Amino acid sequence: MATISRRSWLTRNVLAIGLASFFSDVSHEMATTVLPAFLALEIRATPLALGAIEGIADGLASFFKLIGGWWTDRMGRRKPIAVSGYAVTTVATASFALAVSWPVVLFGRALAWMARGWRTPARNALLADTVPREAYGHAFGFERAMDTVGALVAPVLALSLLEAGASCSHIFA
């Protein structure tokens, strides 16, 4: 097996995508950590509302992965699609801070997960376009590792902020 140099796989795009995955996951996993408490204690939503929010958002994310795959192949420009997906996910998640009822959270979560859905195929295709075929494992592994580290850091950060007196709305924003 040939050794792959770091220079061949750790390109600026791979590093940027890894960092975007890390920070995006920190953002939305912090929101996910406090969302049930926010819905139950501040908005007074039922468990059924949380189930509806998550179910609808997950369904839309899956559907928009199909659309995102078609879109990125048709356009041939992957970066604008991926960047727009990360940006919309961030803004839509932050919109939870303005919510006064669970349908507002549903709208924000649905929009965030639609954007997450359309960005994923573009991001993955961009990674594949960026590195040689023999470096796919390194590039995709790095992106997934950065995403996972973000998911591990987020709940600790969210709970630390709550303990320090921050509100759920502050965490969303």
Description:
With 173 residues, the chain is mainly alpha-helical. The protein has one domain (11-172): Growth Hormone, Chain: A (Up-down Bundle), CATH 1.20.1250.20. Helix content is 83%, strand content 0%. The protein contains 7 helices and no strands. The N and C termini lie far apart (47 Å). The model has no long low-confidence stretch (mean pLDDT 95).
Quick gist of this model?
This protein is an all-alpha fold and about 170 residues long. The chain is about 85% helix and about 0% strand. It has a single domain, classed as Growth Hormone, Chain: A, CATH 1.20.1250.20.
Counted by DSSP, the helix tally is: 7
The percent range for helix content is over 70%
Q: What order do the helices and strands follow? A: HHHHHHH
Q: Over all CA atoms, what is the radius of gyration?
A: 17 Å
Domain count: the total is 1
CATH class: Mainly Alpha
In CATH, the architecture is Up-down Bundle
Terminus-to-terminus distance: 47 Å
CATH superfamily: MFS general substrate transporter like domains
What can be said about the biggest beta sheet? Answer: none
Describe this protein with a few key phrases.
173 residues; Growth Hormone, Chain: A; single chain; globular; mainly alpha; 7 helices
Give me the secondary-structure topology:
Blueprint: H1 6-9, H2 12-42, H3 47-75, H4 78-94, H5 102-130, H6 136-163, H7 168-172
Helix pairs in contact: 2-4, 2-5, 2-6, 3-5, 4-5
